[in-house]
Amino acid sequence: MTLVKFEPFRGFENLTRRVNDIFGDLEKGVRFEIGDFAPRVDISEDDKNVYVHAELPGVPKENVKITVSEDRVLTIKGEKKREETTENRNYVRVERSYGSFTRSFMLPENVDFESINAKFDAGVLDLSLPKVQPQKPKEREVAIN
Q1: Is residue 110 a contact partner of residue 132, using CB atoms and an 8 Å limit?
Q2: Which candidate in 25, 46, 50, 98 could, as Cys together with 129 as Cys, close a disulfide (CB 3.0–4.6 Å)?
C-alpha cells in the first residue's frame, strides 16, 4: 500500500507571494507618465437608443473629436494637456495623467449613424445613438407554372 501525502495548500505559497508583491507595489504609489490618460466609458442601451457616457475631466470641448466610420466604429479622440506654470515646484506625488487618447467601439448594425446626438458638459461626454428598426427581408411570390 502506497501512502501519498496530500497537501491541499501547496500551490498557495506562490499565489500568496504574488499577491504580496502586487500590494507592495501599490503601497509605493502609482505614477502615471504623460500619455497614460484613458477616459472611463459606460455604454448602455434601451429599446430606442445606445448611450455612451465618457468621463473627460480636464479636457476642453475643443480638444474632443468624435467620428463614426462606415465599418460602424465609433471613435472618441482628444487630448488632456498639462497646465504649465512658471513657478518652480518639486512634486512629491503626481497622480493625474495627461496626453492624447483614443477610444474606439464597434457599434451594432441597428444604429442610425446620421442621427447621433452629442452633449458635453462639465467634463462629461454623453452620446445618444438612435436605433433603427431592422428591415424585413423582401418577399416575392413566385408563380407556379
Answers
A1: yes
A2: 50
- The answer to whether the pTM exceeds 0.70 is no
Q: Look at the block and give the residue holding cell 473627460.
A: 56
In angstroms, the CA 79 to CA 120 distance is 15
Tell me: the pLDDT tens digits for 22-58? Answer: 666 544 444 333 456 788 999 999 999 999 999 998 8
* Closest C-alpha to 54, from 38, 34, 35, 33: 38
Count of alpha carbons within 13 angstroms of residue 51, beta-carbon side: 10
Residue 8 grid coordinates = 491541499
What lies within 8 Å, CB to CB, of 55 at 6+ separation is 39, 40, 41, 123, 124, 125
